[in-house]
Protein backbone atom coordinates (compact mmCIF):
# COMPACT_ATOMS: atom_id res chain seq x y z
CA UNK A 1 0.00 0.00 0.00
CA UNK A 2 2.66 2.66 0.83
CA UNK A 3 4.40 2.04 -2.50
CA UNK A 4 1.17 2.70 -4.34
CA UNK A 5 0.54 5.91 -2.44
CA UNK A 6 4.10 7.02 -3.15
CA UNK A 7 3.58 6.25 -6.82
CA UNK A 8 0.59 8.59 -7.08
CA UNK A 9 2.39 11.28 -5.10
CA UNK A 10 5.25 11.13 -7.60
CA UNK A 11 3.06 11.03 -10.70
CA UNK A 12 -0.25 12.87 -10.32
CA UNK A 13 1.01 16.27 -9.05
CA UNK A 14 3.83 16.38 -11.59
CA UNK A 15 1.55 15.41 -14.46
CA UNK A 16 -0.87 18.18 -13.49
CA UNK A 17 2.00 20.68 -13.21
CA UNK A 18 3.34 19.61 -16.60
CA UNK A 19 -0.02 20.03 -18.30
CA UNK A 20 -0.72 23.39 -16.66
CA UNK A 21 2.73 24.66 -17.66
CA UNK A 22 2.10 23.50 -21.21
CA UNK A 23 -1.25 25.30 -21.31
CA UNK A 24 0.36 28.49 -20.01
CA UNK A 25 3.19 28.32 -22.55
CA UNK A 26 0.75 27.86 -25.41
CA UNK A 27 -1.22 30.85 -24.15
CA UNK A 28 1.99 32.93 -24.06
CA UNK A 29 2.38 32.39 -27.81
CA UNK A 30 -0.80 34.48 -28.11
CA UNK A 31 -2.49 31.87 -30.23
CA UNK A 32 -5.79 33.10 -28.83
CA UNK A 33 -5.07 36.43 -30.49
CA UNK A 34 -6.49 34.94 -33.66
CA UNK A 35 -9.92 35.77 -32.26
CA UNK A 36 -10.73 38.48 -29.73
CA UNK A 37 -11.31 36.46 -26.60
CA UNK A 38 -12.57 39.52 -24.70
CA UNK A 39 -15.05 40.63 -27.35
CA UNK A 40 -18.65 41.26 -26.15
CA UNK A 41 -20.89 38.22 -26.13
CA UNK A 42 -24.41 37.26 -25.10
CA UNK A 43 -23.41 33.72 -24.14
CA UNK A 44 -22.68 34.31 -20.47
CA UNK A 45 -26.08 33.37 -18.97
CA UNK A 46 -26.21 30.10 -20.94
CA UNK A 47 -22.52 29.47 -20.29
CA UNK A 48 -23.06 29.92 -16.57
CA UNK A 49 -25.87 27.35 -16.65
CA UNK A 50 -23.73 24.84 -18.57
CA UNK A 51 -20.86 25.46 -16.17
CA UNK A 52 -23.17 24.60 -13.27
CA UNK A 53 -24.34 21.46 -15.07
CA UNK A 54 -20.88 20.11 -15.79
CA UNK A 55 -19.21 20.91 -12.45
CA UNK A 56 -21.97 20.80 -9.86
CA UNK A 57 -24.69 18.73 -11.54
CA UNK A 58 -22.56 15.98 -13.01
CA UNK A 59 -20.29 16.06 -9.98
CA UNK A 60 -23.15 14.93 -7.75
CA UNK A 61 -24.67 12.82 -10.54
CA UNK A 62 -21.59 10.57 -10.41
CA UNK A 63 -21.81 10.04 -6.65
CA UNK A 64 -23.50 6.66 -7.04
CA UNK A 65 -21.08 4.45 -5.10
CA UNK A 66 -21.20 4.30 -1.31
CA UNK A 67 -17.40 4.44 -0.85
CA UNK A 68 -16.41 6.58 -3.82
CA UNK A 69 -18.01 9.97 -3.19
CA UNK A 70 -14.83 12.01 -2.73
CA UNK A 71 -13.31 10.58 -5.91
CA UNK A 72 -16.49 11.01 -7.96
CA UNK A 73 -16.85 14.69 -7.08
CA UNK A 74 -13.15 15.57 -6.85
CA UNK A 75 -11.92 13.83 -9.99
CA UNK A 76 -14.83 15.26 -11.99
CA UNK A 77 -13.81 18.77 -10.93
CA UNK A 78 -10.16 18.14 -11.79
CA UNK A 79 -10.95 16.72 -15.23
CA UNK A 80 -13.31 19.57 -16.07
CA UNK A 81 -10.88 22.38 -15.21
CA UNK A 82 -8.07 20.67 -17.14
CA UNK A 83 -10.33 19.70 -20.03
CA UNK A 84 -11.74 23.19 -20.54
CA UNK A 85 -8.27 24.67 -20.92
CA UNK A 86 -7.34 21.96 -23.40
CA UNK A 87 -10.57 22.47 -25.36
CA UNK A 88 -10.09 26.24 -25.58
CA UNK A 89 -6.59 25.75 -26.97
CA UNK A 90 -7.85 23.21 -29.52
CA UNK A 91 -10.60 25.62 -30.57
CA UNK A 92 -8.08 28.39 -31.10
CA UNK A 93 -5.72 26.05 -32.95
CA UNK A 94 -8.52 25.23 -35.37
CA UNK A 95 -9.10 28.94 -35.91
CA UNK A 96 -5.38 29.49 -36.41
CA UNK A 97 -5.27 26.67 -38.99
CA UNK A 98 -8.38 28.14 -40.64
CA UNK A 99 -10.27 24.91 -40.03
CA UNK A 100 -13.14 26.93 -38.56
CA UNK A 101 -14.24 30.52 -38.38
CA UNK A 102 -13.29 32.88 -35.60
CA UNK A 103 -15.89 33.91 -33.04
CA UNK A 104 -16.24 35.73 -29.73
CA UNK A 105 -14.12 34.40 -26.90
CA UNK A 106 -17.17 33.45 -24.83
CA UNK A 107 -18.40 31.41 -27.80
CA UNK A 108 -15.17 29.44 -27.77
CA UNK A 109 -15.38 28.95 -24.02
CA UNK A 110 -18.99 27.75 -24.29
CA UNK A 111 -18.10 25.18 -26.95
CA UNK A 112 -15.17 24.04 -24.82
CA UNK A 113 -17.42 23.50 -21.80
CA UNK A 114 -19.96 21.53 -23.85
CA UNK A 115 -17.16 19.40 -25.32
CA UNK A 116 -15.90 18.53 -21.82
CA UNK A 117 -19.31 16.93 -21.18
CA UNK A 118 -18.12 14.00 -23.32
CA UNK A 119 -15.32 13.41 -20.81
CA UNK A 120 -17.68 13.63 -17.84
CA UNK A 121 -20.03 11.07 -19.40
CA UNK A 122 -17.16 8.71 -20.24
CA UNK A 123 -15.83 9.05 -16.69
CA UNK A 124 -19.13 7.65 -15.44
CA UNK A 125 -18.46 4.40 -17.30
CA UNK A 126 -14.97 3.86 -15.83
CA UNK A 127 -15.78 5.36 -12.43
CA UNK A 128 -13.96 3.57 -9.63
CA UNK A 129 -11.60 1.65 -11.91
CA UNK A 130 -9.25 4.24 -13.41
CA UNK A 131 -6.68 6.06 -11.30
CA UNK A 132 -6.16 9.85 -11.62
CA UNK A 133 -3.32 9.52 -14.13
CA UNK A 134 -5.42 7.30 -16.36
CA UNK A 135 -8.38 9.69 -16.11
CA UNK A 136 -6.26 12.71 -17.04
CA UNK A 137 -4.75 10.93 -20.04
CA UNK A 138 -8.21 9.74 -21.09
CA UNK A 139 -9.50 13.31 -20.87
CA UNK A 140 -6.85 14.72 -23.19
CA UNK A 141 -7.09 11.87 -25.70
CA UNK A 142 -10.90 11.89 -25.77
CA UNK A 143 -11.12 15.64 -26.31
CA UNK A 144 -8.72 15.43 -29.26
CA UNK A 145 -10.66 12.58 -30.85
CA UNK A 146 -13.98 14.31 -30.23
CA UNK A 147 -12.73 17.38 -32.08
CA UNK A 148 -11.54 15.12 -34.90
CA UNK A 149 -15.02 13.58 -35.09
CA UNK A 150 -16.63 17.03 -35.11
CA UNK A 151 -14.21 18.17 -37.82
CA UNK A 152 -15.11 15.20 -40.05
CA UNK A 153 -18.83 15.81 -39.60
CA UNK A 154 -18.50 19.52 -40.26
CA UNK A 155 -16.10 19.47 -43.23
CA UNK A 156 -16.95 16.26 -45.08
CA UNK A 157 -20.63 15.80 -44.18
CA UNK A 158 -21.49 19.52 -43.93
CA UNK A 159 -23.13 19.13 -40.53
CA UNK A 160 -23.73 22.56 -38.92
CA UNK A 161 -21.33 23.23 -36.04
CA UNK A 162 -23.99 23.40 -33.29
CA UNK A 163 -25.35 20.00 -34.36
CA UNK A 164 -21.87 18.45 -34.54
CA UNK A 165 -21.35 19.60 -30.96
CA UNK A 166 -24.62 17.98 -29.83
CA UNK A 167 -23.19 14.54 -30.68
CA UNK A 168 -21.34 14.90 -27.39
CA UNK A 169 -23.67 12.48 -25.55
CA UNK A 170 -23.30 9.79 -28.19
CA UNK A 171 -19.52 10.12 -28.36
CA UNK A 172 -19.02 10.29 -24.60
CA UNK A 173 -21.20 7.26 -23.82
CA UNK A 174 -19.70 4.88 -26.36
CA UNK A 175 -16.14 6.10 -25.87
CA UNK A 176 -16.53 5.37 -22.15
CA UNK A 177 -18.02 1.93 -22.81
CA UNK A 178 -15.12 1.03 -25.09
CA UNK A 179 -12.59 2.19 -22.48
CA UNK A 180 -14.22 0.33 -19.58
CA UNK A 181 -14.32 -2.90 -21.61
CA UNK A 182 -10.50 -2.97 -21.41
CA UNK A 183 -10.43 -2.92 -17.60
CA UNK A 184 -10.56 -6.16 -15.57
CA UNK A 185 -13.94 -7.20 -14.17
CA UNK A 186 -14.70 -6.43 -10.55
CA UNK A 187 -15.47 -9.55 -8.48
CA UNK A 188 -19.09 -9.33 -7.23
CA UNK A 189 -18.03 -11.00 -3.99
CA UNK A 190 -16.20 -7.85 -2.83
CA UNK A 191 -19.51 -5.94 -2.80
CA UNK A 192 -18.07 -2.43 -3.05
CA UNK A 193 -19.69 -1.39 -6.33
CA UNK A 194 -23.11 -0.75 -4.83
CA UNK A 195 -24.86 2.38 -3.69
CA UNK A 196 -26.25 3.49 -0.36
CA UNK A 197 -29.26 5.68 0.49
CA UNK A 198 -26.91 8.62 1.02
CA UNK A 199 -25.08 8.17 -2.28
CA UNK A 200 -28.36 7.75 -4.17
CA UNK A 201 -29.71 10.93 -2.59
CA UNK A 202 -26.61 12.91 -3.62
CA UNK A 203 -26.79 11.43 -7.10
CA UNK A 204 -30.44 12.38 -7.42
CA UNK A 205 -29.54 15.91 -6.31
CA UNK A 206 -27.15 16.09 -9.25
CA UNK A 207 -29.83 14.74 -11.60
CA UNK A 208 -32.33 17.38 -10.51
CA UNK A 209 -29.73 20.11 -10.87
CA UNK A 210 -28.83 18.96 -14.39
CA UNK A 211 -32.55 18.67 -15.22
CA UNK A 212 -33.23 22.28 -14.23
CA UNK A 213 -30.44 23.74 -16.37
CA UNK A 214 -30.54 21.29 -19.30
CA UNK A 215 -32.56 23.64 -21.60
CA UNK A 216 -29.58 26.02 -21.55
CA UNK A 217 -27.32 23.15 -22.59
CA UNK A 218 -29.41 22.36 -25.68
CA UNK A 219 -29.93 26.01 -26.63
CA UNK A 220 -26.52 27.55 -25.97
CA UNK A 221 -25.47 27.50 -29.65
CA UNK A 222 -28.89 27.05 -31.28
CA UNK A 223 -30.17 29.57 -33.81
CA UNK A 224 -33.68 29.51 -32.36
CA UNK A 225 -33.02 29.61 -28.61
CA UNK A 226 -36.62 30.06 -27.49
CA UNK A 227 -37.79 27.06 -29.50
CA UNK A 228 -34.91 24.95 -28.21
CA UNK A 229 -35.64 25.89 -24.59
CA UNK A 230 -39.37 25.17 -24.87
CA UNK A 231 -38.97 21.83 -26.65
CA UNK A 232 -36.24 20.69 -24.27
CA UNK A 233 -38.25 21.56 -21.19
CA UNK A 234 -41.35 19.74 -22.45
CA UNK A 235 -39.30 16.66 -23.35
CA UNK A 236 -37.65 16.69 -19.92
CA UNK A 237 -40.99 17.06 -18.15
CA UNK A 238 -42.54 14.12 -19.99
CA UNK A 239 -39.46 11.93 -19.53
CA UNK A 240 -39.53 12.62 -15.78
CA UNK A 241 -43.23 11.71 -15.59
CA UNK A 242 -42.56 8.61 -17.68
CA UNK A 243 -39.71 7.66 -15.36
CA UNK A 244 -42.04 7.55 -12.33
CA UNK A 245 -44.72 5.67 -14.26
CA UNK A 246 -42.36 3.04 -15.71
CA UNK A 247 -40.48 2.66 -12.44
CA UNK A 248 -43.63 1.61 -10.62
CA UNK A 249 -44.67 -0.67 -13.49
CA UNK A 250 -41.34 -2.48 -13.80
CA UNK A 251 -40.48 -2.89 -10.10
CA UNK A 252 -41.31 -6.22 -8.49
CA UNK A 253 -43.17 -4.66 -5.57
CA UNK A 254 -44.67 -1.75 -7.51
CA UNK A 255 -42.56 0.85 -5.70
CA UNK A 256 -40.52 3.65 -7.22
CA UNK A 257 -36.79 2.98 -7.65
CA UNK A 258 -34.44 5.92 -7.30
CA UNK A 259 -32.08 4.38 -9.86
CA UNK A 260 -34.84 4.55 -12.50
CA UNK A 261 -35.62 8.20 -11.80
CA UNK A 262 -31.92 9.01 -11.70
CA UNK A 263 -31.39 7.48 -15.17
CA UNK A 264 -34.56 8.34 -17.07
CA UNK A 265 -35.32 11.88 -15.89
CA UNK A 266 -32.69 13.31 -18.26
CA UNK A 267 -33.50 11.05 -21.22
CA UNK A 268 -35.88 13.55 -22.82
CA UNK A 269 -33.27 16.30 -22.90
CA UNK A 270 -30.74 13.96 -24.53
CA UNK A 271 -33.28 12.65 -27.04
CA UNK A 272 -34.14 16.13 -28.37
CA UNK A 273 -30.59 17.50 -28.30
CA UNK A 274 -30.27 17.29 -32.11
CA UNK A 275 -33.79 18.49 -32.91
CA UNK A 276 -34.77 20.90 -30.12
CA UNK A 277 -34.10 23.95 -32.32
CA UNK A 278 -36.11 22.63 -35.28
CA UNK A 279 -39.16 20.86 -33.80
CA UNK A 280 -42.22 22.77 -34.94
CA UNK A 281 -44.85 21.22 -32.67
CA UNK A 282 -44.58 20.73 -28.90
CA UNK A 283 -46.23 17.31 -29.01
CA UNK A 284 -43.28 15.95 -31.01
CA UNK A 285 -40.88 16.94 -28.23
CA UNK A 286 -43.21 15.38 -25.66
CA UNK A 287 -43.35 12.08 -27.57
CA UNK A 288 -39.56 12.03 -27.81
CA UNK A 289 -39.34 12.64 -24.06
CA UNK A 290 -41.66 9.71 -23.36
CA UNK A 291 -39.79 7.43 -25.75
CA UNK A 292 -36.53 8.49 -24.13
CA UNK A 293 -37.68 7.35 -20.68
CA UNK A 294 -39.02 4.08 -22.15
CA UNK A 295 -35.72 3.36 -23.91
CA UNK A 296 -33.74 4.18 -20.77
CA UNK A 297 -35.66 2.07 -18.25
CA UNK A 298 -36.40 -0.91 -20.50
CA UNK A 299 -32.88 -0.70 -21.91
CA UNK A 300 -31.39 -0.82 -18.43
CA UNK A 301 -33.22 -4.08 -17.74
CA UNK A 302 -32.17 -5.71 -21.01
CA UNK A 303 -28.59 -4.42 -21.08
CA UNK A 304 -27.76 -5.23 -17.48
CA UNK A 305 -29.14 -8.77 -17.72
CA UNK A 306 -28.17 -9.77 -21.26
CA UNK A 307 -25.92 -7.41 -23.20
CA UNK A 308 -23.41 -6.20 -20.61
CA UNK A 309 -22.67 -9.63 -19.03
CA UNK A 310 -22.10 -11.15 -22.49
CA UNK A 311 -19.61 -8.41 -23.42
CA UNK A 312 -18.18 -8.24 -19.87
CA UNK A 313 -18.99 -4.55 -19.56
CA UNK A 314 -19.22 -2.94 -16.12
CA UNK A 315 -20.86 0.41 -16.74
CA UNK A 316 -20.51 1.92 -13.27
CA UNK A 317 -22.93 4.87 -13.62
CA UNK A 318 -25.14 3.42 -16.34
CA UNK A 319 -24.11 5.95 -18.97
CA UNK A 320 -25.12 3.57 -21.77
CA UNK A 321 -28.82 3.68 -21.02
CA UNK A 322 -28.77 7.16 -19.47
CA UNK A 323 -27.02 8.93 -22.36
CA UNK A 324 -26.10 6.42 -25.07
CA UNK A 325 -29.50 4.94 -25.91
CA UNK A 326 -31.42 8.27 -25.74
CA UNK A 327 -28.73 9.78 -27.98
CA UNK A 328 -29.26 6.98 -30.51
CA UNK A 329 -33.02 7.64 -30.31
CA UNK A 330 -32.36 11.35 -30.88
CA UNK A 331 -30.20 10.64 -33.93
CA UNK A 332 -32.89 8.43 -35.46
CA UNK A 333 -35.55 11.03 -34.66
CA UNK A 334 -33.43 13.73 -36.34
CA UNK A 335 -33.33 11.67 -39.57
CA UNK A 336 -37.07 10.99 -39.52
CA UNK A 337 -38.05 14.59 -38.75
CA UNK A 338 -35.68 15.95 -41.39
CA UNK A 339 -37.09 13.64 -44.07
CA UNK A 340 -40.70 14.41 -43.14
CA UNK A 341 -40.11 18.17 -43.00
CA UNK A 342 -38.22 18.32 -46.30
CA UNK A 343 -40.65 15.89 -47.95
CA UNK A 344 -43.69 17.96 -47.03
CA UNK A 345 -41.97 21.18 -48.10
CA UNK A 346 -41.01 19.77 -51.52
CA UNK A 347 -44.19 17.67 -51.82
CA UNK A 348 -42.11 14.48 -52.06
CA UNK A 349 -40.94 15.32 -55.58
CA UNK A 350 -37.21 15.59 -55.03
CA UNK A 351 -36.38 12.13 -53.68
CA UNK A 352 -32.69 12.46 -54.51
CA UNK A 353 -32.42 15.46 -52.19
CA UNK A 354 -34.17 13.50 -49.42
CA UNK A 355 -31.81 10.60 -49.96
CA UNK A 356 -28.84 12.92 -49.62
CA UNK A 357 -30.16 14.33 -46.34
CA UNK A 358 -30.66 10.81 -44.97
CA UNK A 359 -27.13 9.88 -46.07
CA UNK A 360 -25.63 12.92 -44.32
CA UNK A 361 -27.53 12.42 -41.05
CA UNK A 362 -26.89 8.67 -40.91
CA UNK A 363 -23.29 9.22 -41.94
CA UNK A 364 -22.72 11.67 -39.10
CA UNK A 365 -24.31 9.26 -36.63
CA UNK A 366 -22.32 6.22 -37.81
CA UNK A 367 -19.07 8.17 -38.03
CA UNK A 368 -19.49 9.51 -34.48
CA UNK A 369 -20.30 6.18 -32.87
CA UNK A 370 -17.63 4.26 -34.83
CA UNK A 371 -14.96 6.84 -34.00
CA UNK A 372 -15.96 6.75 -30.34
CA UNK A 373 -15.83 2.95 -30.15
CA UNK A 374 -12.55 2.54 -32.05
CA UNK A 375 -10.68 5.36 -30.34
CA UNK A 376 -12.13 4.38 -26.96
CA UNK A 377 -10.91 0.82 -27.39
CA UNK A 378 -7.44 2.04 -28.35
CA UNK A 379 -7.41 4.43 -25.39
CA UNK A 380 -8.49 1.68 -23.00
CA UNK A 381 -5.70 -0.59 -24.18
CA UNK A 382 -3.15 2.22 -23.77
CA UNK A 383 -4.38 3.05 -20.26
CA UNK A 384 -3.79 -0.52 -19.13
CA UNK A 385 -0.09 -0.66 -19.96
CA UNK A 386 2.30 -0.85 -17.02
CA UNK A 387 3.38 2.77 -17.41
CA UNK A 388 0.10 4.04 -15.94
CA UNK A 389 0.16 1.72 -12.90
CA UNK A 390 -3.41 0.45 -13.11
CA UNK A 391 -5.10 -0.04 -9.75
CA UNK A 392 -5.52 -3.60 -8.53
CA UNK A 393 -9.07 -4.91 -8.77
CA UNK A 394 -9.32 -5.20 -4.99
CA UNK A 395 -8.85 -1.41 -4.73
CA UNK A 396 -11.66 -0.51 -7.13
CA UNK A 397 -14.46 1.81 -5.89
CA UNK A 398 -12.62 2.91 -2.74
CA UNK A 399 -11.92 6.51 -1.72
CA UNK A 400 -9.37 5.43 0.86
CA UNK A 401 -6.87 4.64 -1.87
CA UNK A 402 -6.73 8.31 -3.00
CA UNK A 403 -8.18 10.51 -0.23
CA UNK A 404 -7.84 11.16 3.47
CA UNK A 405 -11.10 9.86 4.89
CA UNK A 406 -12.35 9.40 8.43
CA UNK A 407 -12.90 5.99 9.98
CA UNK A 408 -16.63 6.66 10.18
CA UNK A 409 -16.86 7.27 6.43
CA UNK A 410 -14.95 4.06 5.72
CA UNK A 411 -17.26 2.03 7.96
CA UNK A 412 -20.32 3.54 6.25
Automatic annotation (TrEMBL):
<protein>
    <submittedName>
        <fullName>RHD protein</fullName>
    </submittedName>
</protein>
<feature type="transmembrane region" description="Helical">
    <location>
        <begin position="135"/>
        <end position="152"/>
    </location>
</feature>
<feature type="domain" description="Ammonium transporter AmtB-like">
    <location>
        <begin position="41"/>
        <end position="386"/>
    </location>
</feature>
<feature type="transmembrane region" description="Helical">
    <location>
        <begin position="356"/>
        <end position="385"/>
    </location>
</feature>
<comment type="similarity">
    <text>Belongs to the ammonium transporter (TC 2.A.49) family. Rh subfamily.</text>
</comment>
<feature type="transmembrane region" description="Helical">
    <location>
        <begin position="12"/>
        <end position="29"/>
    </location>
</feature>
<keyword id="KW-0812">Transmembrane</keyword>
<dbReference type="Pfam" id="PF00909">
    <property type="entry name" value="Ammonium_transp"/>
</dbReference>
<feature type="transmembrane region" description="Helical">
    <location>
        <begin position="198"/>
        <end position="217"/>
    </location>
</feature>
<feature type="transmembrane region" description="Helical">
    <location>
        <begin position="283"/>
        <end position="303"/>
    </location>
</feature>
<keyword id="KW-1133">Transmembrane helix</keyword>
<feature type="transmembrane region" description="Helical">
    <location>
        <begin position="49"/>
        <end position="65"/>
    </location>
</feature>
<feature type="transmembrane region" description="Helical">
    <location>
        <begin position="229"/>
        <end position="249"/>
    </location>
</feature>
<dbReference type="GO" id="GO:0097272">
    <property type="term" value="P:ammonium homeostasis"/>
</dbReference>
<dbReference type="InterPro" id="IPR002229">
    <property type="entry name" value="RhesusRHD"/>
</dbReference>
<feature type="transmembrane region" description="Helical">
    <location>
        <begin position="323"/>
        <end position="344"/>
    </location>
</feature>
<dbReference type="InterPro" id="IPR024041">
    <property type="entry name" value="NH4_transpt_AmtB-like_dom"/>
</dbReference>
<dbReference type="GO" id="GO:0005886">
    <property type="term" value="C:plasma membrane"/>
</dbReference>
<feature type="transmembrane region" description="Helical">
    <location>
        <begin position="77"/>
        <end position="97"/>
    </location>
</feature>
<dbReference type="GO" id="GO:0008519">
    <property type="term" value="F:ammonium channel activity"/>
</dbReference>
<dbReference type="InterPro" id="IPR029020">
    <property type="entry name" value="Ammonium/urea_transptr"/>
</dbReference>
<feature type="transmembrane region" description="Helical">
    <location>
        <begin position="164"/>
        <end position="186"/>
    </location>
</feature>
<keyword id="KW-0472">Membrane</keyword>
